[in-house]
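General statements about sequence and structure are easier to judge against a single worked case. For one protein, we set the task of working out the structure tokens from the amino acid sequence alone. The sequence in question and its structure tokens are set out directly beneath this paragraph.
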Amino acid sequence: MTDSLEARMREAVDLAERGRGKVEPNPRVGAVALAEGRVVGRGWHREWGGPHAEVEALSDARHGGAEPDTMVVTLEPCSTAKGASGKKTPPCTEALVAAGIKRVVVGATDPDPRHRGQGIAALEEAGIEVVDGIESDACQRILAPFRRWLGLDRPWTIAKYAMTLDGKTAAPTGESRWISGPESRREVHRLRSRCDAVVVGYRTARTDDPELTVRHVEGPQPLRVVVDPWAELEERSKLVATARVHPVLVLANENADAVRVERLREFGVEVLPVKPAEKGRRLHLLEAWRTLREERGVRRVLVEGGGGLLSQLLGWDCVDQLQAYVAPKMIGGRFAPTPVGGAGRPFMAQAWNFGDLSARSCGEDVVLEAFRSEG
């Protein structure tokens, strides 16, 4: 029986990996529902804010007309009520009890010390047998981004950019539409809809004049944020013109010109004063990010440009996940911009390190995804 459970847990780990890049900072979780030892349902956490793996596996089993008695799941089922700590879904323990599950096989206990063991306790209190520690090493490995999230006091930050095969994000003239294909652009709109805020720097806002709205897919509109130290966002820009329809927040230097700040506010733009990090344009972005989480409840941020902003966020260790869309094009040119600007790191040994690298196709493009690693 143990060998069978280990095989089923390995299958659950493979299912969990299907959520890579879509669920973070929530954990990747996979689940397999069994009836008398036979697999009758499979599920995984598919996207941020979506149903958890156990619920998906139960739904899959019901769709096939089966009544499972055992659930094999890579992570201890959650027991926290919906709405607590920003939680978007009901507790899985309740779903398992309601489904008549008799046994739950767990790969890893919850890394969050606030909740560790509570799911197991709730199941046992309901009379469900719990077997834990099955394939625990593999189950722990896929939780690395979640463990990073538990140590943060700011939003989880995803840096997204499109680039050519030779690593350019625009032509030497600054023109960048369109590098990636239509499938990639639709996917980015889905990603926007799964984030609490989408952020660009002032230069990107000025050069590209983006709307930063969810237009190509159905989904909620995130808060639109511009890092604009001197409150220079133009009144005729699409962001300002639509500020009363879809909120816009400008992060500005606390010493920015009061007239410009008030003018933006007259157009419906919210301006958040941020203390400067040093002389010049730069802001204390770590403090700003903390404020977004503490005062606005922002837990997941998508940064869409540009290279200077990304360089600053890397310097503040405020990038957790990369999503790069690589188009089958080359632009060349020594003055064409690259994804990360600024001064960079002087030595290779000081590079910002990312791991857990994966690649997949999206229409004509290739999507590279990676997660920040220590060092």
